[in-house]
TrEMBL record, chain A:
This is Amino acid ABC transporter permease. The lineage of its organism: Bacteria, Pseudomonadati, Pseudomonadota, Alphaproteobacteria, Hyphomicrobiales. It is found in: Cell inner membrane; Cell membrane. NCBIfam families: HEQRo_perm_3TM. PANTHER family: BLR6398 PROTEIN, MEMBRANE COMPONENT OF AMINO ACID ABC TRANSPORTER. Pfam families: BPD_transp_1 (PF00528).
TrEMBL record, chain B:
It is a multi-pass membrane protein. Its main location: membrane. It is found in: Cell inner membrane; Cell membrane. This is Amino acid ABC transporter permease. The keyword Nucleus does not apply. NCBIfam families: HEQRo_perm_3TM (TIGR01726). SUPFAM superfamilies: MetI-like (SSF161098). It comes from the Bacteria. Residues 21-209 form the ABC transmembrane type-1 domain. PANTHER family: ABC TRANSPORTER PERMEASE PROTEIN (PTHR30614:SF35), MEMBRANE COMPONENT OF AMINO ACID ABC TRANSPORTER (PTHR30614).
């Protein structure tokens, strides 16, 4: 016990912050790929595919990320599958992000004006050509500000990986606190680091949104 | 992989789950009610002509929205403790959730305020309504009506986020699950069941807000114009 905050502690926090960034990238990449598939399924011409993907989104959006984390980390080993904290956290974030990004991107696809879809059809483009050459390039422009905004949510939510013992920023703060017992100071530092990671993204998203027309009200998981 | 599921032992603990679910709803209800008050005040503050008031409200919103709830909860929990104040985990959890959701609500209601056309306010001034009357009848209610769907989704997300308060041993649904799984070694079944309970809770909340919406915004129903 005892001692005071020194350079080693700050190094440890920095290391944790790097893992927070790493885990965020895993969530963004995995969740982005899965979310893109979810978004495509949500606007699929097949009723069954639409129904299943809607069910998936409703299920995930109705469950806290924390419970998904516990389910993968403690639940899967009970079924005989061993998972490391990194795998559990990465998989949970991927699932979580896919449902929310899928929903955001579906909205972006649908906000590409209807005549664009019809014109592409009128030009006898195949479904994949229409998607890749007409809809996607326009949807990407619409999707950029909310996606950057959602990256803030991903970074904040990686803090929940601490509960399965993954040593990212929040967990490294807890570990340091266990030896120094100066919770207020340490968690303030942690909060400042998270803010430094998230605020530039928030500003950037806001600026993109302003440039791209009227602001939409955005929902955010706390 | 040996699939050996046993939901029966978990189902036996239903009174504990029910109690946890009720506590989760209680937390969500307190934070929603107080968060709405903070949201309205915050939104008025952010639009204040007084630069310092507007600035303080802006900083509050940005700080909360750009830091994780988990860290906010720890800060409130340990912050109060280091001031020598002792509160129950439930009170701390409710306070932290209120502070958190207040910032999001502020932002949503402000967007609603901003969407009220200038002409409406000028018309109200022309009808010699007082400042308070204008804020109440012309700005606030129509604004909240406009952002009501966003507000309610935010409150459902808040209910889900309240699971994080299990980390400071508030006895809500997730904490109950943690206890039961460590007691029965049936982690998979426990968390599946808890996930289902959370889904039911969010459906219940959505239905509740929909009914509440019919009651407090009857105009929309009468005109039959979807929002």
């Amino acid at each position: 016990m005892g001692g005071s905050l020194n350079a080693n502690h700050l190094m440890f926090l920095g290391y944790g912050a790097l893992w927070t960034i790493g885990l965020s990238l895993i969530g963004l990449l995995g969740g982005g790929i899965a979310g893109f598939i979810v978004a495509l399924c949500r606007i699929s011409p097949s009723r069954i595919v639409r129904l299943i993907s809607t069910g998936y989104v409703q299920l995930i959006q109705g469950t806290p990320l924390l419970v998904i984390m516990f389910l993968t980390y403690f639940g899967l080993p009970a079924l005989g599958v061993t998972v490391s904290p990194l795998m559990a956290a990465g998989a949970s974030l991927t699932i979580f992000v896919s449902a929310y990004l899928g929903e955001i991107w579906r909205g972006c696809f649908e906000s590409v004006p209807k005549p664009q879809w019809e014109a592409a059809e009128g030009l006898a483009l195949s479904r994949s050509q229409r998607m890749m050459k007409v809809i996607l390039p326009q949807a990407v422009r619409i999707a950029t500000p909310p996606t950057v905004g959602f990256m803030v949510q991903i970074i904040k939510n990686t803090s929940l990986a601490s509960v399965v013992g993954f040593v990212e920023l929040a967990r490294s703060g807890q570990i340091i606190n266990n030896s120094l017992f100066e919770p207020f100071l340490i968690y303030t530092i942690i909060a400042v680091i998270y803010f430094a990671l998230c605020y530039p993204l928030s500003l950037f998203s806001h600026r993109l949104e302003k440039r791209g027309g009227p602001a939409r009200i955005e929902l955010e998981a706390a | 992989m040996n699939l050996n599921l046993d939901f029966a032992t978990i189902f036996e603990r239903w009174p504990a789950f029910l109690q946890g679910a009720l506590l989760t709803l209680q937390l969500a209800f307190i934070a929603t009610a107080l968060g709405t008050v903070i949201g309205v005040l915050g939104a008025i503050g952010r639009r204040s002509s007084h630069p310092i008031v507007a600035r303080i409200c802006g900083i509050y919103v940005e700080v909360i929205r750009n830091t994780p709830l988990l860290v906010q909860i720890f800060l409130v929990y340990f912050g109060l403790a280091s001031l020598g104040l002792k509160f129950s985990a439930f009170a701390v959890a409710a306070a932290a959730l209120t502070i958190n959701v207040g910032a999001y609500t502020t932002e949503i209601i402000r967007a609603g305020f901003d969407s009220i056309p200038r002409g409406q306010i000028e018309a109200a001034e022309g009808l010699a309504l007082s400042r308070a009357q204008i804020y109440w009848y012309v700005v606030m209610w129509p604004a909240i009506e406009k952002v009501y769907p966003s507000l309610t989704s935010q409150f459902v997300l808040l209910m889900l986020a309240s699971s994080v308060t299990s980390q400071i041993s508030a006895e809500e649904l997730t904490a109950v699950a943690n206890y039961i799984q460590s007691d029965t070694y049936r982690a998979f079944e426990t968390y599946i069941l808890v996930a289902i309970v959370y889904i039911i809770l969010s459906l219940v909340m959505r239905a509740g807000f929909w009914l509440l919406g019919l009651v407090i915004f009857p105009r929309r129903r009468r005109l039959g114009t979807p929002l």
